[in-house]
Amino acid sequence: MHLRTSLSRPARATRRPVKGRARALLLALCVLGAAALLSAPSAQAYTPARPEQAYAPVKIVHTEQVQAGPYHLTLGFSTWPLRAMQSLDFTFAPDGGLTGKSGTFSMTRPGAKAGMRGVRPLSRHPRKRSVWGLDILSLPTAGQWAFTFTVNGPQGQGTGTLGNLTVLDQPGPPLALSWTLCALPVLGLIAFLIVAWRRHRPSRHLAVAGV
């Protein structure tokens, strides 16, 4: 006579909660990985520039002339033609150098009313200390801009304006379209994680197991 000893198999219901917890843990790891990927560009944006980048020479490719009373200014641009939302360097060089001179300047955007322009002091360019200037600035809108300078020096005060400075439309697709295209992968990832979580959430498996 052969005796068969049957070993009872573990109930499937007892294994499902463990499997559900494993899936929940995997889903949590996916969420953390996605958050790390999304935060990577922001961290990179705040990374300090390397010394060779911080002190890169200013290359002027176009100049304009402004007469501010007795003072003659040469305006330099590191990119030409100008386009909206395109970063570039500006330099403002008075004849005879900066010794004994100071002043202010303002930029008037297209369609701005009189008096609605921000006035700021003329300061040395951070990477070209021999002249006044602006370091990596972009003009936000296309159209006709005006730069107004007031210079104080040994010959008194003088004011001059460079008007009708044409700024073209920004390069590439419109900004709203660019943001939309960039957001599509993120929205798709969020939708995928939500669907995966609803299919494999632990509470559902516990209910099936009768816990």
**Secondary structure tally: strands:** 10
Give me the number of helical elements: 4
CATH architecture of the domain at 57-168: Sandwich
CATH topology of the domain at 57-168: Immunoglobulin-like
pLDDT < 50 runs, ≥5 residues: 10-16, 40-53
pLDDT average, as an integer? 79
- The percent range for helix content is 25-40%
Helix/strand order, N-terminal first: HHEEEEEEEEEEHH
Distance between the termini: 42 Å
Largest sheet: 5 strands, antiparallel
CATH class of the domain at 57-168: Mainly Beta
* Apparent shape: elongated
User: Beta-strand level of the residues, as a percent range?
Assistant: 25-35%
- What is the gyration radius calculated from CA atoms? 32 Å
Enumerate the strands of the largest sheet in spatial order, edge to edge or round the barrel: 1-2-4-8-7
Give the helix/strand class.
alpha+beta
Describe this structure in words.
The chain has 211 residues and is α+β, with helices and mostly antiparallel strands. It has a domain of 112 residues: Immunoglobulin-like (Sandwich). It has four helices and ten strands; from the N terminus they run H-H-E-E-E-E-E-E-E-E-E-E-H-H. The strands form two sheets. Strands 1-2-4-8-7 form a five-stranded antiparallel β-sheet, with no helix packed on it. A five-stranded mixed β-sheet has the order 3-10-9-5-6, with no helix packed on it. Helix 1 packs antiparallel against helix 3 and helix 1 runs antiparallel to helix 4. Keywords: Membrane, Signal, Transmembrane, Transmembrane helix. This is CopC domain-containing protein.
